[in-house]
């Protein structure tokens, strides 16, 4: 293993340890005797953390800017809901179907658009997201349109759901860690840094872009399916562009290209958005300004700021 690979491996391991530490601290939150409403907000925050992790795999580790994470979450939720509504399928059938169906759609879309570069990829995935949302919203006989569809729940206790979603965050973060620590993760990073140079060295760029896009789509579909079982309802609102913007802001503010950053950003941004809900749409302006500030002055996000502080403290200690 080269010195650079060893450094990346150590950094990734530290990243995962911090995620596990954050989740361990979150285990004690229900002991504060929170209201069901507050627990619900935290659970939805974990849902967005799953989405942020999935989108970061594509944008942060592969360099592909998709505008469709919320659309794939909506699609995953509808796979489960439609199977239950029309065929009476249980969640044990609906959940795997949501993952496989989202992955298949992601594969088909990725095979179509991943040869595009720059803004064309973003515009194409944006068009797909809007088409999917409008189609679901207008297919009243099949999807019940804007009324949405009911979804069976996995459990009735909110505290149980809290720990379940927390476990899902740990699981998804660990899976991304294992992928990025493998040689395939090295290929994804090489594509992100310089796709032309990676291709010149024999890396099948389009194939690995497609792999990342498919995995990210499946993760988003799974997150949407799990959210549906918690809220017991899926609707076209899940696929709104505003939801995707929120996910992107979470990753940028938390720290793109890391594992802990997107989770930290998701929790902070979503909880803040709930606190700012009473003051209306000004919350969108606040997050837009924060994204601009972080993108300009703090490109590594809160996670990068933490690493810089940690490095300085460690340097002072040795001196």
Task: Write a concise keyword list for the protein shown above.
319 residues; 1% strand
Report on this model:
There is one protein chain. The protein is mostly helical. The protein has one domain. The chain is built from 14 helices and two strands. The protein has a two-stranded antiparallel sheet. Helix 2 (36-59) runs parallel beside helix 7, helix 7 packs across helix 8 and helix 11 (241-254) packs across helix 12. The protein is globular, with a radius of gyration of 20 Å. The protein starts with a helix and ends with a helix. The relative contact order is 0.17.
Describe the SSE topology.
Elements: H1 3-26, H2 36-59, H3 69-87, H4 91-113, H5 119-138, H6 140-143, E1 149-150, H7 158-181, H8 183-193, H9 195-200, H10 205-231, E2 233-234, H11 241-254, H12 260-275, H13 282-297, H14 301-318
Antiparallel strand pairs: 1-2
How do you describe this structure in short?
The chain is built from 14 helices and two strands; from the N terminus they run H-H-H-H-H-H-E-H-H-H-H-E-H-H-H-H.
* Major sheet description: 2 strands, antiparallel
Structure class: mainly alpha
Q: Helicity level, as a percent range?
A: over 70%
Shape: globular
Query: Over all CA atoms, what is the radius of gyration?
Result: 20 Å
* Domain module count: 1
Q: Counting H and I runs of at least 4 residues, what is the number of helices? A: 14
Strand order of the largest sheet: 1-2
| Helix-strand string | HHHHHHEHHHHEHHHH
Mean pLDDT: 89
Low-confidence stretches are none
Strand content: under 5%
Number of strands: 2
First CA to last CA: what distance?
30 Å
